[in-house]
Design a protein that fits this description.
Radius of gyration: 21 Å
Number of strands: 13
Strand order of the largest sheet: 3-2-1-4-5-6-7
Order of helices and strands: EHEEHEHEHHEHEEHEHEHEHEHEHHH
Strand content: 5-15%
Number of helices: 14
Shape: globular
Helix content: 25-40%
Distance between the termini: 19 Å
Structural class: alpha/beta
Oligomer: single chain
Length: 376
């Protein structure tokens, strides 16, 4: 490492356990620092389960020693040797002891801290925490109060964080980005189905709301495909709800897809639907936009406020039984104007290369970087 290089360390204890929206986002923020000429590391615990993150950033990831048996008890003792004065430590997500200890070690070692919560301080998550005597909340407030900045993805998230930890005053507000989609994977709308792709977390992802919305549609109902990895038996719960609502003829549920199969699903769908009750900055929604897919999303998530006025997508309240669901779907199905707006926005304003530079510039403006910077 040269004398003029900034050290940037991303810490996410679960990084190697399985791929997720957080690990995908983290990879790109690490790439942005590398593009700025930084010395970058992603620090993680040795995985304990059978799954692995097959998209781990080769050459950048390093496992460090941890005490404890799982994510709830891990203590990152290896950070003591890793951190140096003037380093920038980026802590991902929250509600885990490991992040609080990592923040304390950073303070002792003279490193600067940026917390990137990825939406974990949304009111619904806070309210559903198992928190005896409020200890977990107090620990996270302590960490947020000692961070040099909190990196959120949309302006609306600043309010969310302030409501949880009023001491936070310094924010970096730069969203996740998009990558270029090959021409042969761009949206055509040639299929006969609407599509949702994600983790089968019925409550968070609003899958129950979407299915009840579908049940209110007039017959014959359009086809809906729900695709993604299981989460705490959520896929079986979705199957049971489809059966209870009498949606077997219109709703198809299947497992995780990736690569060319995923590209084809997006390219051929009539539109993408995204019914989450809350969401920080969905990578899947951004992938749909990059492929030029018209999207209908829940009006309760931040993207509705930010991207709706730009006509990048449409939003609806999936829980409102007075909403004309058929009209809402028709407004996006095969909508080539909306698709073009999404594609153009993703190719310009939302590219990872652009938002990555914005992140580095924000670090510089806040004085978080002691060395280095953007290459010419």
């Amino acid at each position: 490492m040269s004398a003029g290089t900034q050290r940037v360390l991303h810490y996410y204890a679960r990084y190697l356990e399985h791929p997720s929206g957080v690990t995908d986002s983290l990879n790109h923020w690490a790439e942005a620092s590398l593009a700025a000429g930084d010395d970058v590391s992603i620090l993680a615990a040795e995985p304990t389960g059978g799954d692995r993150n097959e998209f781990a950033f080769e050459g950048v990831v390093k496992t460090i020693p941890h005490w404890g048996r799982n994510r709830g008890t891990w203590v990152p003792i290896g950070l003591v040797r890793e951190l140096k004065r003037g380093d920038l430590l980026v802590l991902h997500e929250g509600w885990v002891l490991s992040n609080v200890v990592a923040g304390a070690i950073a303070r002792i070692r003279g490193a600067r801290i940026v917390v990137m919560p990825h939406g974990v301080y949304e009111q619904q998550i806070v309210a559903n925490q198992r928190d005896v005597l409020g200890i977990r909340a107090r620990m996270d407030r302590w960490l947020l109060g000692r961070a040099s900045a909190v990196h959120v993805f949309y302006p609306g998230e600043q309010t969310v964080v302030k409501e949880f930890a009023s001491s936070v005053t310094r924010f970096i507000t730069v969203p996740n980005g998009t990558t270029e989609v090959p021409a042969d994977a761009m949206w055509t709308g040639a299929g006969n189905y609407f599509l949702w792709i994600g983790r089968f977390d019925l409550f968070h992802k609003g899958i129950d709301n979407l299915l009840e919305f579908w049940a209110r549609l007039p017959l014959p109902r359009p086809k809906l495909r729900l695709v993604g990895p299981d989460f705490q038996n959520g896929r079986a719960e979705a199957v049971a709800l489809v059966d209870r609502l009498g949606l077997e003829d219109s709703v198809d549920i299947s497992g995780r897809v990736s690569g060319a199969a995923k590209d084809e699903l997006l390219a051929r769908c009539l539109a993408y639907v995204h019914p989450s009750r809350w969401e920080s900055c969905s990578i899947m929604l951004l992938e749909a936009a990059a492929a030029g897919v018209p999207s209908l999303i829940s009006d309760s998530i931040h993207a509705a406020d930010e991207l709706g006025p730009l006509r990048v997508l449409h939003s609806v309240d999936f829980t409102d039984d007075t909403v004309d669901g058929q009209a809402a779907l028709e407004s996006v199905a095969g909508n080539r104007e909306l698709a073009g707006n999404a594609r153009d926005w993703a190719a310009t304003e939302a590219r990872w290369s652009r938002v990555g530079r914005q992140m580095v510039e924000a670090h510089t403006a806040l004085g978080l970087r002691t060395q280095g910077g953007l290459r010419p």
